[in-house]
Amino acid sequence: MDGEDGVSFINPIGTLYTPALKVTEGHGEVDIRLHLNCSHCEMDECRVDLETQKVICFCEPGTELAEDGVSCIVYRRKHQELQAMQMELQSPEYKLSKLRTSTIMTDYNPNYCFAGKTTSISDLKEVPRKNISLIR
Predict the structure, then answer these.
(1) Which residue segments constitute the domains of the chain, with CATH numbers given?
(2) Which position has the higher pLDDT, 107 or 65?
(3) What is the pTM of this model?
């Protein structure tokens, strides 16, 4: 089909469409840009190194790009600090301190019975915190 000086095209339903484009006759230009597919990167963000033309992935602050160029890693020292914090959060002492500071309401149970005798609050002995452990 005749392109009529490069200003026509065939629309999606298959008919030649030229009138609206006649106004744009003349030389034109095409802007071709590289679209990076960064889906292989951990953060889905990357750039092209202009010297090597390789794709370089970005990592979150506090992490570094691994040798594979895709994975993000944490420095060993920072990783050890992170593990120490995680261990502290998992410790029974931390869990007990959360229980102590939480809004748990406790009340005296008048039905305590030891060896067949009823017991008053004054008869109950306080247990030191170091002797208490949290059991799931």
Answers:
(1) 1-25 (no CATH), 40-85 (2.10.25)
(2) 65
(3) 0.34
